[in-house]
Amino acid sequence: MIGTIKDVTLDTIVGEVMNMKNDGQRLVTYSTYEAGEGKIGILYHFDKNLETSHLRLVADMDKPIPSVSGVYFAALLVENEIRDQWDVKFDGLVLDFNRTLYLDPEVTQVPLASNVKIAPKK
């Protein structure tokens, strides 16, 4: 990954994303990874004039992560996908598909979180 990486926290992520937008940065996507027992890492990827920059957040999977969909509306798709795949909740998500964006109703195990069971959707 070429570009700069800045570490952020749950308290600073929305403000830092707003700074990126005000700087003319385009939100590209997020990448997620397991960052230790019960933790998720999220890399927020941005582009401006073909130069990339990234924000890195490491958070507890059982605590809501502030949504940046209020800053970049399209972030709702990536955040809903992360919710589907990791069972992570986003606080303030502008449109929450309640874990049904990509997963079929009969799915009973979170795909990327080891041994996490979920109730069938109705």
Automatic annotation (TrEMBL):
Show the SUPFAM superfamilies listed in the entry.
Answer: Nqo5-like (SSF143243)
Q: Which residues form a coiled coil?
A: none
Stored InterPro entries: NADH_quin_OxRdtase_su_C/D-like, NADH_UbQ_OxRdtase_30kDa_su, NiFe-hyd_3_EchD
Q: What is this protein called?
A: Ech hydrogenase subunit EchD
This protein's source sits in the domain of life called Bacteria
- Domain NADH:ubiquinone oxidoreductase 30kDa subunit, by residue range, is 27-118
Pfam families per UniProt: Complex1_30kDa
From what organism does this protein derive? Answer: Pseudodesulfovibrio portus
